[in-house]
Amino acid sequence: MSVVASPRDTAAPISVVASARDTDAPTSADPALPFDAVVQRAAQVASVDAALLHAIIDTESGYDPQAVSVRGAIGLMQVMPRTGERFGVRRLEDPAENVRAGASYIRWLLARFDGDLTLALAAYNAGEGAVLRYGRQIPPFPETQNYVRKVMAGYARLRDASPVPAVPSRSLPPMQPAAVLVDTKPETKAPATTTPARERGDMSSDEAARERAWRLLRGVGALLTRSPSAEASDSRGRDRPAVVMPARGQARGAGAAIGG
């Protein structure tokens, strides 16, 4: 049975899984959830709900920081090494680093799938490619569907009892991998564009004179090189020199005649 009738409707899966109480899911009645301080810090950095991270951790590893899957996923949030590297984390055996990587990845998936939590969870379990191959639907894998149902059940319990707002349903802005964990780069402003002196009006008198001279020369050049159409030239005789200079051979003959 599919987890949700319409994966695009984020309200539907919450109501469905909230009625299917999972006794293994963490509840708000717990005196203190394991690694809560680590989870709270990672949730703040990645801008996701800490209750969601707790639900994922409980489902992925049962809060075992040394858990390693047969596929090579590591730690509390069962992060693959390549996924950790995407978000600038290599020490996945460290609980704090592991949760930061997992939180950043789930945040990225929420942005990738337009805030649809069920699709983000399905992609966290089965991979982004699987969700895309099935037309942005939850893949028909029993493991993935059970995973989504279990995480949503735990999250619904924690969220309902928490005064902190849940993950927003609106579309989230995209985040760049390896930049969502710690932003240590100073904000850089684009250099101000320089305006030529002629446009600012702060040229010296000599510069202004040279500028006017160049403009005049350009205007003269345009006048000398501009030619009207052939019809206008024939009818009005434009651009014809006032004195027609003879060819070089004719000039020599004329000089000889004058000299003779």
UniProtKB/TrEMBL annotation:
Residues 185-206 are annotated as: Disordered. Residues 39-137 form the Transglycosylase SLT domain. Coiled coil: none annotated. GO terms for molecular function: peptidoglycan lytic transglycosylase activity. Gene3D superfamilies: 1.10.530.10. Residues 197-206 have a biased composition (Basic and acidic residues). It comes from Pandoraea cepalis. Belongs to the transglycosylase Slt family. GO terms for biological process: peptidoglycan metabolic process. It holds the Pfam family SLT. InterPro entries: Lysozyme-like_dom_sf (IPR023346), Transglyc_AS (IPR000189), Transglycosylase_SLT_dom_1 (IPR008258). This is Peptidoglycan N-acetylmuramoylhydrolase. SUPFAM superfamilies: Lysozyme-like. One of its GO terms (cellular component) is membrane. It comes from the Bacteria.
